[in-house]
Amino acid sequence: QDKSYLMIPGPTPVPPSVVAAMTAPMFGHRSEDFQAMHKEIIGKLQKLFQTQNEIYVLTSSGTGGMESAVANTVSPGDKVLTLVGGKFGERWSELANQYGAEVIELNYEWGTCVDPQAVQEQLAANPDIKVVFATQNETSTGVTNDIEALGKIVAQTPALFVVDGVSGVGGIEIKVDEWNVDILTTGSQKSLMLPPGLAIQSISDKAWKKIEENKSPRYYFSLLKARKQYPKWNTAYTPAVSLFVGLNAALDMILNEGLDNVYARHKLMRDATRAAIRALGLNLMTDDAYASPVVTSVYAPEGIGADDIRKVLKQEYNITFAGGQAKLKNKILRIAHMGFADKMDIIIAVSGLEMALQKVGYPVELGAGVKAAQQVFLGVL
Ligand code: PMP
């Protein structure tokens, strides 16, 4: 079926103009054309990241970008702090463990955000912490953490502040310089509206100092090697040229819409989705205070498997929601509204959900969720 509605938190739908851009004939990655495009892309990314820092576009999935951040900053035996409230926070711990770090894990309940005060206490108790690893948008639970507050705290210490922005950047505001983010690492296939295959990261001066003295083995992900090529707008190895072309086009879309408008659009989709879920009598996993603008987690009704609802959605309406991961498996639905998404996507999602709920034996008032979403969009709720 060609007509499908992909509403998972990555990969996300790619806009037709970006697809079209990526069909351009291949060109060499050592050519002047590539260098000119690379320079343009970095300028646009600096606007998106709100930073003067150098930004590296790696040919890799999002996890590769996370590994690059760890491999380049963590030496064996270093004490690091990971903030863990979901599957992607756990990934920081796993990576840091692989690189021989002494990992202090600050666990916060899945579905809530990390308390900056608790981070401050950990840093005070462990002044030898070298790196703090955080997640901007915890995709597994639908929580957005307060990066500004965390950055302010970490900046007062010698520790680096490394942030996974894989699912949030492009949909949720980030201010790398003002918020003291030493490394922000993101991915192409979520709010940036591209296919999978790129990881993008900014590196602060404070981070470069640590990277230079780092003792972990690195080859493909050596940022020092990448930095040698940077002034020439080259990459160390063959980059995914077509994805770079797509990135250039996607960044144009984002910057032409305007960052403030992009962020407001995502918050509006979040608010409409949440109003609809409440109108249907279902339970949201997260509080309003830290609910993600790009993905909404919803508990399945008592006694009904979330995956049964997803199956009906897929089979009957060709709508794909994500399910729960790890301990949330079969318990929640995750409705993504990130990147190339707008009001009518929410109407489709909610309308399909209402019908699917009916079919799995959880009768709802048809149209109640759609109406609530419409009211949010019209500003009358
Ligand atoms: N971090 C976050 C917050 C994510 O959402 C994801 C992807 N779901 C990743 C990291 C990993 O990215 P990838 O699957 O591209 O390696």
Automatic annotation (TrEMBL):
Record PTM N6-(pyridoxal phosphate)lysine, positions in chain: 190
Transmembrane segments: none
Annotated keywords: Aminotransferase, Pyridoxal phosphate, Transferase
Chain segments annotated as coiled-coil in the UniProt record: none
Gene3D superfamilies: Aspartate Aminotransferase, domain 1 (3.90.1150.10), Type I PLP-dependent aspartate aminotransferase-like (Major domain) (3.40.640.10)
Binding-site positions, substrate: 334
GO molecular function terms attached to this record: alanine-glyoxylate transaminase activity; L-serine-pyruvate transaminase activity
Family statement: Belongs to the class-V pyridoxal-phosphate-dependent aminotransferase family.
GO biological process terms held by the UniProt record: glycine biosynthetic process, by transamination of glyoxylate
Domain Aminotransferase class V: 5-326
Names of the cofactor(s): pyridoxal 5'-phosphate
SUPFAM superfamilies in alphabetical order: PLP-dependent transferases
Keyword Metal-binding on entry: no
Protein name: Aspartate aminotransferase
Pfam families from the UniProt entry: Aminotran_5
